[in-house]
Amino acid sequence: MKKQFLTEVAAFAYILLFSYAAAAKLFRIDMFEFQLKLQPFSRSWVPFLMWAIPISLILIVLVLLFPRYRMMGLKLGTGLMIVFTGYISLAKFGYFKNPPCTCAGVVPKFTWGQHLWFNLFFLSLGVLAILIQVNKKNLKLN
C-alpha cells in the first residue's frame, strides 16, 4: 500500500510540475520564445521548441491523469526530467556560456546548483515510482 502511495505521489507531483510549467510557458509565450532564442542551440529550433515543449508537458499530464496509462506517463515524465536535468547539469558545470533559464515561477530565481537539486528530486521520484511498479509487476509474474 505504501509503495502504491509513493507512485501516486510521484504522478501527482509530475502533474503539478508539468501543468504549472506548461501554463507558464503558454501564458508568456513571448518571453519563452525570447529565452529560447538565447539558448546555446540553433535559432531555427525555436519555433518548434516553443510549442513542442509545453504541448509535450500537457500531453504527459493528460496521460498521467488516467490510472490505466499512469506507468507510461511516469516513464515519459521521467524521460523528460532526464533531458532537462542533463541540460541543467551542463549549464551548472559550465559547458554553456551564460544560458538563460526558461523556467517559470520561483525556479528562475534558483542558482544552477539549486535547480539541479530541484530536478534531481523530481527525477528520483519518477525513477523510484517506475522501479516500484516494475518490481510490483515482476512479483505478480512469479
TrEMBL record:
<feature type="transmembrane region" description="Helical">
    <location>
        <begin position="78"/>
        <end position="96"/>
    </location>
</feature>
<dbReference type="GO" id="GO:0030416">
    <property type="term" value="P:methylamine metabolic process"/>
</dbReference>
<keyword id="KW-1133">Transmembrane helix</keyword>
<keyword id="KW-0472">Membrane</keyword>
<protein>
    <recommendedName>
        <fullName>Methylamine utilisation protein MauE domain-containing protein</fullName>
    </recommendedName>
</protein>
<feature type="transmembrane region" description="Helical">
    <location>
        <begin position="116"/>
        <end position="134"/>
    </location>
</feature>
<dbReference type="Pfam" id="PF07291">
    <property type="entry name" value="MauE"/>
</dbReference>
<dbReference type="GO" id="GO:0016020">
    <property type="term" value="C:membrane"/>
</dbReference>
<feature type="transmembrane region" description="Helical">
    <location>
        <begin position="47"/>
        <end position="66"/>
    </location>
</feature>
<feature type="domain" description="Methylamine utilisation protein MauE">
    <location>
        <begin position="4"/>
        <end position="131"/>
    </location>
</feature>
<keyword id="KW-0812">Transmembrane</keyword>
<dbReference type="InterPro" id="IPR009908">
    <property type="entry name" value="Methylamine_util_MauE"/>
</dbReference>
